[in-house]
Amino acid sequence: MEVKIRQEKPEDRKGVFTLIEAAFLNESNSDHQEQFLVDRIRKSYAFIPELSLVAEVDNKLVGYVLLSEITIQNDKNKFPALALAPVAVLPEYQSKGIGSKLLKSVHQKAKELDYKLVIVLGHEEYYPRFEYEPAINFDIQAPFEVPKKNFMLKELVPNAAKDIFGIVVYPEEFHI
């Protein structure tokens, strides 16, 4: 099975909406609103088209990932970072390495765009495979109550979080 990863095009949006909806349909930890979140982010300053990627198999959309701009803020400084939300793969294509390919591709693209940190609220057993660690280890906190093991950070550049601390600030489109 050949998987092609590419930047999302405007004509992909309807298919991406349906894909995300299907991917999260049976997820117990989901609010089943991820597809609407993506639509809101696309209309915001936080949207970075180069970090909105799709996976295709035989010209069929089977996966999607989005990184969008956030900040980490303390009393004195604001630091740019990215939020990973969502990564989605159609159920019949899950556990075939497509999510991994999407994540590796979007991390590489973010690094090329000079981003240094990615934050995710996600599964504590899945994301560490991609070098995500609990954000609290870096003194970076969520702006809401969440299990510390599920709020994670990935340094795209070694020691990128060394001098950064504070609370993550999401764009209003996240409805947090």
From TrEMBL:
GO terms for molecular function: acyltransferase activity, transferring groups other than amino-acyl groups. InterPro entries: Acyl_CoA_acyltransferase, GNAT_dom, MshD_Acetyltransferase. It comes from the Bacteria. SUPFAM superfamilies: Acyl-CoA N-acyltransferases (Nat) (SSF55729). Residues 3-157 form the N-acetyltransferase domain. This is N-acetyltransferase. It comes from Zunongwangia pacifica.
